[in-house]
Amino acid sequence: MRMARKLVIVVAVLAIIVVPMLADAQRMGYRPVTDQRLAEPEPANWLMTRGNYQGWSYSPLDQINTYNVKKLAPVWAFSTGVDSGHQAPLLVNNGIMFVATPYNQVVALEAKTGKLLWRYKKEMPEGLSVLHNTSRGVALYGDKVYLATHDCVLVALDATTGKVAWERKVEDWKTGYYMTLAPLVAKGKVMVGVSGGEFGVRGFVAAFDANSGQPTWKTYTVPAPGEKGSETWTGDTWKKGGGSVWITGTYDPALNLTYWGTGNASPWFGDQRPGDNLYTSSTVAINPDTGKLAAHFQYQWNESWDWDEPDAPIVADFTKDGRTVKGLIKPARNGYLYRLERSADKISFVSATPYVKQNVFKSIDPTTGRPTYNEDRIPRTGKRADFCPSLWGGKDWPFAAYNPKTAMLYIPANDNHCGYMEGKVQKYEAGKWWTGVDIPDIGFAVDKTARHFGEVQAWDVSGNKRVWSHLFPDSMNWGPVMTTGGGLVFNGGTNDRYFRAFDASTGEVLWQFRTNSGITAPPVSFAVDGVQYIGVASGWGVDPAFQQGLLSDLLGWPKDVPQGGVVWVFAVAQ
């Protein structure tokens, strides 16, 4: 009886806590997210990872501008309760904010005040170990919030309560598959890709019905024998060929094509898997209705440097030689800025321009975009090679941004760093590290005479020329970029923990604020009750923390950047 009485008391206390939270969410009047709203998002909301289907990371809001941004001040902050790398944007719909954190957690907050509405956390199975424990966000559609989890499950949550609406297994985590990306929703399909390229998985994009969770199609990025592109693989190497898809795709509604970046081939050293190895290190175009792979462009064939190219290109038009080009724009990990042309059944090469130092490509074919390599820069089994940039690339996954008012692209770049590796044959074990090199043997070096390492670059897309650069002499840049109609560029990413606003036209730093930790999440902008806000999650970890340790050894930089996730929201002080 005493135990029963205690249980009743506990339940009553939980009801006192939870019921008001749910009532608060319902009083907010959640507005369903429709196909029309995703295709034409309202400026006051931030409904998807990069702000729009095209991946611009652009907010048309201009209440905060170059004149008043110096008055920007925090209006609230919220601790997520976890450490490690916070890499998710803050999605906002009709005054409700959704935040994904490491360790498969989602919290819903009142966007104006930071008040907690609900919290969800998925328990992970015993024995699960992933290379990156981060989450890069959620997706919104209808009355649901969609999360891709580390144990390779797609979870649909009720947006007003956080309760699970349905769950669907995407793949078997025991074989090395896991997920960190934010899903992409288009035309009633929830699409996800998989991580695990370092464990010898075969990459794919899969789609599920948004309402029921039923699987609708699955498209592998490494073709099986008899499929188009299979001739670029030898023997059974395709079965564990890599090509993981671990960053959210972009979408062109007019062509009805989604664009996804694919990762490195497995193992890392190309002499262990002869051939071009399609469709690794590529951009692939997939029809969201059918899953048909309609087109591709490969950045480097028989890839041997761990230059994943998972960051989907920006869908934006530009001009060249007086002609409007239906464009795809991508600052690649290999150190080149690519301009491509998109059509219903083809991705055509337009240009490739180095934006950081690169010594691997001897030349690039001006018609096809296929590179020719300097042979002494290709690491092989039993043969060491040095190459620049390092495996983290001229830009890793953090998003670039495109501003249609300035017609400029803004890149979070890293320069003056190189890598070296020597391959070996490793025995394959499902779910285990399988790259051809052990982690301690992955080399990293920097130019100790360099004036800078991280930077923010601004490029005139049509002119294909750099307009300005802001240099960071004491840090790499691991921060995605967001730009606005108010003529601003926002970026974190540095080890000094600053969040900065730049003049989009000149690169002048107009404002900065030091947060609790380093920022590796995409900034966003939204409005509630006519007031514009800037938001970002701060929380250092994963690759930026690992690289910071290496730089500490090489350059004497401080090794530790404080960790701990905090959501920061700013507005102009009145």
N-C termini distance = 58 Å
Helix count from the secondary structure assignment: 3
Percent helix = under 10%
- How many individual β-strands? 40
Describe the model.
The protein is mainly beta and 574 residues long. The chain is built from 3 helices and 40 strands. A 5-stranded mixed sheet has the order 1-34-35-36-37, with no helix packed on it. A 4-stranded antiparallel sheet has the order 2-40-39-38, with no helix packed on it. It is globular and about 65 Å long. The protein starts with a helix and ends with a strand.
Structure, briefly:
The chain has 574 residues and is mainly beta. Helices cover 8% and strands 35% of the residues.
Write the layout of secondary structure elements.
Layout (H helix, E strand, L loop, with lengths): L1 H26 L7 H5 L18 E2 L12 E8 L11 E3 L2 E6 L3 E6 L5 E6 L17 E3 L2 E5 L4 E6 L5 E6 L14 E3 L2 E5 L10 E6 L5 E6 L29 E3 L4 E5 L20 E5 L6 E6 L15 E2 L2 E3 L2 E3 L1 E5 L4 E7 L4 E8 L6 E4 L6 E3 L11 E3 L13 E3 L4 E7 L2 E5 L21 E4 L7 E7 L4 E8 L8 E4 L3 E4 L6 E6 L5 E6 L9 E5 L2 E8 L3 H14 L10 E7 L2
Parallel strand pairs: 1-34
Antiparallel strand pairs: 2-40, 3-4, 4-5, 5-6, 7-8, 8-9, 9-10, 11-12, 12-13, 13-14, 15-16, 16-17, 17-18, 19-22, 20-21, 22-23, 23-24, 25-26, 27-30, 28-29, 29-32, 30-31, 32-33, 34-35, 35-36, 36-37, 38-39, 39-40
